[in-house]
Amino acid sequence: MIPAAYAVLNLDAVQHNLQRVRQLAPNAKIMAVIKANGYGHGLIRIAKALQNADAFAVARVDEGIRLRKAGIKNRIAVLEGFTCAEELDELVNYQLDPLVHSVDQLKILESREEHDACAVWLKLDTGMNRLGFKPKEFCQAYQRLNKCSMVRSPINLMTHLANADDRQDAITLKQISLFYDTLALLPSDPELSNELSIANSAGILAWKEALTDWVRPGLMLYGISPFSDSTGEQLGLRPIMGLHSRLIAVKSLLKGDKVGYSGAWVCEKSTILGVVAVGYGDGYPRHAKSGTPVLVNGQRVPLIGRVSMDMITVDLETQPDAKPGDPVTLWGDGLAIEEIALCAETIPYTLVCGVTQRVQIVEKSELKTAVSLIPGICY
Ligand SMILES: *Cc1c(COP(=O)(O)O)cnc(C)c1O
């Protein structure tokens, strides 16, 4: 029997995707971004599959601590930095490298007397207007940071691209020039060579100007395209996650019958309806519109009606022999997650991050045994 709502992870693809980053940025060190539970794939699992990355990046301190407690030894950058002295203590204790992006953080660092206790990334805001010092404030922030005894030299420098997923948008080149122009004004010390970082996945794939000492791929490591007009596979990546479930009911409907909440779908002719055990309670997007493709027995059929918490409904007109228990793929082999994201007017980031706790995660290499461990289910 095939279980309801489960995700299969092909971890062999992680190494392939890392190699693809190395190919595109052969001279750069790779900071693998594994925030938000490794984009929903499992923080520790992905960190272990990526041990040969040069560093990791997470958003929050607690994510970094979880990695250290799991025995991860790589450098780890914490992209949101810290907001209080206690959090800075944790960063030091666990040897995590914070982003420094605000004057409040500088003040905390200046109040400390330890020596060389932590490495930092100083962030320049080149137009994203989220975290980072403005170009005008940057030189002073750099000099203040340089005087902090607890901060290790040389200070690492980074910025973040706001529009790199739009290959036509010249804003990206402006951000990159602003980054270098601002760095050119820093006091130069030939003894020191700061390491720089600009590119996220879209930067790596579309903007060679963004390649420098460090690249920070996230989405592409999971085999997914950051561009709305291509799939990961078209970019030479291999998707890691597939989301699967099964049919649990099949029935005939007549012309005029309404399907699901609000009767949002009205049958234009008689057909066969399939009910699939997956819904927004599993992370399937509630806004997936009628017509969103679903694979039943490996064949495309359209979603019809509203997505509910535990179920979706599909039109089985082209598959009159489908029966309860048959396998269903929501995204994965043969059905690109990028296409599902478009049908739900969202981005693939939210789909992978949104897979909920109810969904059993199974590594492909352990598929047979792992699935049989779910109570009441044999594969
Ligand atoms: C999330 C994030 C990344 C990775 O972005 P992707 O688009 O997933 O490659 C890189 N840098 C920063 C600062 C981030 O917040």
Structure description:
The chain has 379 residues and is of the alpha/beta class. The protein folds into two domains: 12-232, Alpha-Beta Barrel (TIM Barrel), CATH 3.20.20; 241-370, Beta Barrel (Lyase, Ornithine Decarboxylase, Chain A, domain 1), CATH 2.40.37.10. It contains twelve helices and 18 strands. The protein has an eight-stranded parallel beta sheet with strand order 8-7-6-5-4-3-2-9. A six-stranded antiparallel β-barrel has the order 10-13-16-15-14-17. Bound molecules: pyridoxal-5'-phosphate (PLP). Residues 33, 35, 79, 160, 200-202, 216-219, 226 line the site of pyridoxal-5'-phosphate.
Count of beta strands: 18
What's the CATH class label of the largest domain?
Alpha Beta
> Which blocks of ≥5 consecutive residues have pLDDT under 50?
375-379
Summarize the biggest pleated sheet.
Answer: 8 strands, parallel
**Strand content bin:** 15-25%
CATH superfamily of the largest domain: Alanine racemase
* Bound ligand species: pyridoxal-5'-phosphate
